Amino acid sequence: MSSLTEKDRPIVQLLLNAGTCPRCILRFCCVGSQMLYRHPHKDLMKDLQDFLKTSEEKEDTVCLDVADPPCKRIRLEHREGGAGDLNHNGAVPQAPQADSGSAAVESSAEKVCNVCLGILQEFCEADFVKKVCQKVNSADYQFTSFVFSVSLPPQLSVRERAAWLGLKQEMRNLGLPLAKDDIVQLKEAYKWIIHPQLSEELGVPTDGKSLFEVSVVFAHPETDEECHFLAIACPDCFKPAKNKQSVFTRMAVIKALEKIKEEDFLKHFPCPPSSPKKLCDALEIQCNNGAVFVAGRYNKYSRNLPQTPWIIDGERKLESSVEELISEHLMAGFKADSFNFSSSGREDVDVRTLGNGRPFAIELVNPRRIRFTAEEMKRLQQAINDSSDKIQVRDLQLVTREAIGRMKEGEEEKTKTYSALIWTDKAIQREDIAFLDDIKELKLDQKTPLRVLHRRPLAVRCRLIHTMRSEYIDEHHFRLHLKTQAGTYIKEFVHGDFGRTKPNIGSLLNRTADILELDVESVDVDWPPTLAD
User: Residue limits of the Pus10 N-terminal eukaryotes domain (predicted)?
Assistant: First the structure.
């Protein structure tokens, strides 16, 4: 177990005199034992008081809980007075006296810590842990483990630097080293203390890879402006960023602290820092579950239903969409905050999707419920299908984030099969369209269609019509079955889009042609896996 030795005596005394809490003192003494930090605040104070009362002549190491093997004692002597011994006020420091420990402890016990601003004091107690757990339990999440995160006020980094510089100066005057890299980080110490308490109260273990996150956001308005001098000393470190209410982010402050010269810091900030009047505030206690992904295939039977909500200039054009008809039931079932819909391509509002359907995936954001059996997924699928005659869903299943990538892999190399009802201005006979059946691997140059130019970049795309099969209806109508490369604009292939698609059915037949109906008959993507009925 980690212990305090004679070389820690001046650190303990100096920090206690400055109003530092016992746990922060352990951090600055580089104590790495997690169990020690979990001891009650009062017990730690008493242990520090006993440590300071220990005679300097005692050779044994003083440990806070169990005795470790003794180490070589470092002599605490003053160096000869000189420029190097002056503190930032020009005074010659004296070695801290052990007999003043009792008064320092009594004073520190009543103060808000000048380094952690109370985070390692009040916010490690059982009352706060219960408050966090009540918030978690009231949110009604399903989880089998959790990861705990904490957001600290950026000025804590400034105060920790000030405390360290004060210690560094004192230790230098005593001829003793102080390595900042060995100081236990506040977040790490806080998690050592609170993790087992949260785990016991919630009844599940902590797991750094858990998808369920419990987070606490701390703030300390009283000291918010303590970072501001850094913006004058290091203006390049503080630049406005999107979605940031303040330029004084934790990372910006840390960057500035790495850049600012020690002497400049000492001019602007007291070392050690003074104790504040108030504790930190726990501004937010939040819960968040990692996203759940659901995949399946949908059929669309309506010629008046868009795939996604159709809104132009803030005005909704149609009352529903494929996306909404599916997601409505999934959102309710998984109790999610929001969703993201994606699919293997998309059809126009007036195009049906038949056959085995179009693959789709939905990301459900921050779901309260995450565990569904295969039978429960079937019931969700049935609920979707019973809610509307415009769509049907099949093969509904839970998938991983990585699996969704298979839906998009090589999307343009996949093939799709269509059925188009075509009208011609001039009368046709069966023999006029028979030659279309013999055309294989027809290459098209398709300039971005006029109807999508507002949302797609202008480009010429090369596409393939693999096969065609014509079905004569009457003198002005025939049906054309096509197997094409994914991404081919079928409507434009029929009417030519004012010459933007070459060749096209109109140019091949040497007459005006237009499309009256279009159906997607198959999307040849082997995902998601087919499920048994």
Answer: 113-287
